[in-house]
Write a structure and sequence with these properties.
Layout lengths: L2 H12 L1 E2 L5 E4 L3 H16 L20 E4 H8 L16 E2 L5 E2 L2
Antiparallel strand pairs: 1-5, 2-3, 2-4
Length: 104
């Protein structure tokens, strides 16, 4: 095994896989909470049926975290993330260790 193969093997061995359908937890900022509500109200309001679909805030756990599937978090709040932007959630994302797999 040459040096490049060894380095690649070492890096892959340290990496873990994660399915974007699995659950992550984040702490929403006030900005993130406002954007979720605004987007919900714009979507249902533009269809004229907001009163049939009132906004319900995400339920925080005892530590202030809310659950999302990773793809759903990025769909809803990814557009608000960027360098120098106000973030919709804290930059630490919690992932349950049981959801991490080995790289094949």
């Amino acid at each position: 095994m040459d040096l490049v193969d060894y380095v690649l093997y070492y890096l892959v061995r340290k990496m873990k896989s994660f399915n974007i359908n699995n659950i992550v937890k984040v702490k929403l900022t006030e900005y993130g909470k406002k954007m979720l509500e605004r987007d919900h109200n714009e979507f249902w309001g533009s269809r004229g049926i907001l009163r049939d679909h009132p906004y319900t805030p995400h339920q925080e756990d005892e530590n202030g975290y809310v659950k999302f599937q990773l793809w759903n978090l990025m769909e809803k709040l990814g557009k608000y993330c960027g360098l120098g932007c106000e973030m919709p959630f804290d930059t630490v994302i919690l992932i349950d260790e049981k959801d991490l797999g080995d790289v094949e």
